[in-house]
Design brief:
Elements lengths: L1 H20 L6 H34 L25 H9 L5 H6 L15 H49 L9 H74 L5
């Protein structure tokens, strides 16, 4: 009898240990944290999936970009055939005139002063030299400006070729041309071309400014000469009139019938 009781107690003890080992202990705080992490992971996943779908949609929408192609504007050259006498310099503005030979062949020659300039007064010599300098400055600006226009024409063709290649890459429908690195390279190339165009435009603007400065000097010299003549008239007019009257009177008094 005692043996049976012991066996029953032992069996109950084993059953109790097995049942207690199968019980699951749940921590509410850890469970709440786990749920929050799972929700955040789901939100990040949904966001990444939406971005991926947007990128795919954008890539599919950019397959046909031929409608965005812009035809190039060809820079025109000056017509030389109808102009017989001005043809050398017109041709120089088309193809280049580095030494100004074409310009000088169509301009009125400017004679160099000889030794007779040394016989005039210092003021007269200075006035002549300033007027001569105005013509020389105008010639220098015109020769360089005409040659620069020809260089810009040639430079425009090279820029146009680079822009055309960049446009082909931008409008290419292949996905290889729209990777991040490729897009950044095209942006850099576009900025570089823009800087080159700005440099060419600034060069033309500088020559336009030089033309204005040369014309301003010419106009200033003309106005200064007119003002100086007026000042001289006011300063020496009375004495000149009196001398003229006195000389005329003496001539009349001493005149005799031949």
């Amino acid at each position: 009898m005692a043996r049976r009781v012991c066996l029953l107690v032992l069996a109950l003890s084993l059953m109790t240990l097995s049942a207690s080992a199968q019980l699951v202990v749940i921590d509410p705080l850890e469970l709440e944290q786990t749920v929050l992490i799972a929700q955040r992971v789901q939100q990040v996943y949904d966001q990444l999936r939406a971005e991926y779908q947007l990128i795919v949609q954008m890539a599919q929408g950019l397959r046909n970009l031929n409608g965005y192609r812009i035809p190039p504007i060809a820079i025109t050259g000056l017509e030389t055939a109808p102009f017989e006498y001005g043809r050398p310099w017109i041709q120089g503005m088309n193809s280049g005139d580095a030494r100004g030979t074409a310009y000088l062949s169509t301009a009125v020659p400017l004679q160099r002063p000889d030794a007779s300039l040394d016989r005039v007064s210092a003021d007269a010599r200075r006035l002549f030299q300033n007027q001569y300098a105005t013509v020389e400055i105008s010639d220098s600006v015109a020769m360089l400006g005409g040659h620069q226009v020809a260089l810009i024409r040639e430079y425009h063709n090279r820029l146009q070729q680079a822009v055309q290649k960049l446009e082909d890459d931008v409008l290419n429908g292949s996905s290889d041309y729209h990777q991040m690195t490729a897009v950044l390279d095209k942006i850099s190339a576009g900025e570089l071309l823009e800087r080159r165009q700005d440099m060419a435009a600034n060069q033309l603007l500088s020559h336009a400014l030089e033309q204005l400065l040369a014309r301003t000097k010419r106009e200033r010299d003309t106005e200064a000469t007119t003002i100086n003549m007026q000042v001289t008239t006011w300063r020496d007019g009375r004495a000149a009139n009196n001398a003229f009257v006195a000389g005329t009177g003496d001539a009349l008094r001493t005149w005799r019938q031949p």
